[in-house]
Specification:
The protein is of the alpha/beta class and 252 residues long. The protein has one domain (3-251): Metallo-beta-lactamase, Chain A. The chain has nine helices and 14 strands. It has helices at residues 32-41, 56-59, 62-68, 141-152, 167-177, 182-196, 206-212, 221-230, 238-251, and strands at 3-9, 13-20, 23-27, 45-50, 72-76, 86-88, 93-96, 99-105, 114-118, 121-125, 128-129, 132-133, 159-162, 204-205. The strands form three sheets. It has a six-stranded mixed β-sheet, with helices on one face. The chain has a six-stranded mixed β-sheet with strand order 7-8-9-10-13-14. Bound molecules: zinc ion.
C-alpha cells in the first residue's frame, strides 16, 4: 500500500499526498503552491491527480500542477473539472501507485461527487467529515443518506480521509444531538488533545464515525428522539431523520 500524508491548504483544507518511493499522487489539490513546495522538498514526481468534486477548493490547483507535470486527472464524469483526462463514474476501478482503487458515487454535497476507496482507506472529499457530513449544495437528503449508507457498509477499520479539519466544530453539534453518548464524549477529549498539540483529527476510522457521527446514526433511538424534539412531525424514515439533523446543523 502507498503511504498517505497530508498537505494543509487554505484555512482548513487537507490535500492528501499518496506516495510510493518517489512516485506521488495528490487528492483534491485546491491550491498548487503547497503541493509544489512539498513535491520539491521531498523530491517527488507527480504521477496523477484524483478529484472528488468540482468545488474550487478541491480542483483549483489542477491547471498549475498539470503545466508542470502533465499527468492524468481522474475526476467525476458528470461535473465540470479543469484538465480532466479520465472521467469516472461510480463502480469503476482505477490503479494508483500499484493499488486498485474502487470509485464510489456519493451524490449529495454535489451531484457528481465521487469517493475513492483504497485498501483500508477512503478518500471521501466533502461527503463524510469527522463527526459530520457535507452540506447539501446540489443533492437531496435521500441521495446523501444513501451515499452515507454506502460508506457505512465498508469495514469499521477503514480510515476516513476527508478534505477538511471540521471535527471539533462538528463534535459540538454532535453533543447537542446526543449529550449522553459516551463514545462521543471520549472523542471530544481525544480530538481536543490532538488539536491542542497542533495535530490533525483526520483520518478517523469508520467505526469511530459510526459510534459518534450523528449523520451515520439516523436509526439510533437517541438520534431519532433528538430529531423528533427538533421537528415533532418528522417521520422515522432514515432520510427524514437525516434531513432534520442536517437542517439543524445548518442553523447550529
Ligand atoms: Zn465541496
Amino acid at each position: 500500500m502507498f503511504e498517505i500524508s497530508l498537505i494543509p491548504a487554505f484555512k482548513d483544507n487537507y490535500i492528501w499526498l499518496l506516495t510510493r518511493g518517489k512516485r506521488a499522487f495528490v487528492v483534491d489539490p485546491g491550491d498548487a503552491a503547497p503541493v509544489i513546495a512539498r513535491l520539491e522538498a521531498d523530491d517527488l514526481t507527480l504521477e496523477g491527480i484524483l478529484i472528488t468534486h468540482h468545488h474550487a477548493d478541491h480542483q483549483g490547483g489542477v491547471a498549475e500542477l498539470k503545466a508542470r507535470w502533465p499527468v492524468e486527472v481522474y475526476a467525476p464524469a458528470d461535473e465540470s473539472i479543469t484538465g480532466r483526462t479520465r472521467p469516472l463514474s461510480g463502480g469503476e476501478q482505477i490503479e494508483v501507485l500499484g493499488e486498485k482503487l474502487d470509485v464510489m458515487a456519493v451524490p449529495g454535497h454535489t451531484l457528481g461527487h465521487l469517493a475513492y476507496l483504497a485498501p483500508g482507506a477512503l478518500f471521501c472529499g466533502d461527503t463524510l467529515f469527522g463527526a459530520g457530513c457535507g452540506r447539501l449544495f446540489e443533492g437531496t437528503p435521500e441521495q446523501m443518506s444513501a451515499s452515507l449508507d454506502s460508506i457505512a457498509a465498508l469495514p469499521d477499520d477503514t480510515k476516513v480521509y476527508c478534505a477538511h479539519e471540521y471535527t471539533e466544530m462538528n463534535l459540538r453539534f454532535a453533543l447537542a444531538v446526543e449529550p449522553d453518548n459516551a463514545a462521543l464524549s471520549d472523542r471530544v477529549a481525544r480530538v481536543a488533545a490532538l488539536r491542542a498539540a497542533g495535530l490533525s483529527s483526520v483520518p478517523s476510522t469508520l467505526g469511530e464515525e459510526k459510534a459518534t457521527n450523528p449523520f451515520l446514526r439516523c436509526t439510533d433511538p437517541a438520534v431519532i428522539a433528538a430529531a423528533e424534539q427538533r421537528n415533532p412531525t418528522v417521520n422515522r424514515e432514515k432520510a427524514a431523520i437525516f434531513k432534520t439533523i442536517r437542517g439543524w446543523r445548518n442553523e447550529f
